[in-house]
Amino acid sequence: MADARTHIILWRHGQTAYNVEHRFQGQLDVPLNEVGLKQAEIAAEPLSKLPIDAIYASPLHRAHVTAEALARRVDLPITSDVRLEEVNVGSWEGMLADDIYRENPDFVAGLAEGRDVRRSPTGETCTEVAVRISEALREIAAKHPGQTVVVASHGLAIRMGTAGVLGWDYESSTSLAGMSNCGWTVLGARTEGYWKLVSWNQQAEGLLLSD
């Protein structure tokens, strides 16, 4: 990674009970389960070998505790940024995905048609997530020119933040596979505003795989 670009490593949090149960978490503050804690430790090891200059994280427990596994190894503070939180799913928080799909056929139909459907009547669209996440990523890159920064966040937030800085619309973002728990994506940013997707959903050797 030794070139003129700022490198942003987007790191998804470890597993939670809601991941296992296939519940919509959104911005509920769900903690890591035992597997998630182990995933964070395993993934932090190879990340700590990189020349990390700064660590940012969503303030939600699952992302912040994941970031702590790396911060301990590289002796860096964690800067929290609320813009890095997961999509707000409003009234669907805590609900089983199967129940949401059964009770909201228009949502399912919209997804099948490739439309950016709002996550519950009181939640966000993916495009709205892309705007706030990409704004945060651009600011982080501007503060750390030529450096390597880890950003601990969430699955959909990472996908839409990536799409946002690359200038992709929602439909284009669906070409990206889902992020694994404790997987990471690397973005390169230059001072003139050019962004590049370097790698997507890398995983540590021996990582305990989960959805």
Note down, in words, how this protein is organized:
The chain has helices at residues 17-21, 34-48, 61-74, 97-103, 105-112, 126-143, 155-166, 170-173; strands at 6-12, 54-57, 78-80, 148-153, 184-189, 195-202. It has 211 residues and is an alpha/beta fold. Strands 3-2-4-1-5-6 form a 6-stranded mixed beta sheet. Strand 2, helix 3 and strand 3 (78-80) form a beta-alpha-beta unit. Helix 6 crosses helix 7. The chain is globular, with a radius of gyration of 16 Å. The chain starts with 5 loop residues before the first strand and ends in a 9-residue tail after the last strand. The mean pLDDT is 94.
In what range is the share of β-strand residues? 15-25%
Distance between the termini: 28 Å
* Strands side by side in the biggest sheet: 3-2-4-1-5-6
Given the structure, what is the number of helices? 8
**Class per helix and strand makeup:** alpha/beta
Largest sheet: 6 strands, mixed
What is the strand tally? 6
Name the helicity range.
Answer: 25-40%
Element-level helix/strand string: EHHEHEHHHEHHEE
Q: What's the gyration radius in Å?
A: 16 Å
Low-confidence stretches: none
Question: What general outline do the C-alpha atoms trace?
Answer: globular
Estimate the mean pLDDT confidence: 94
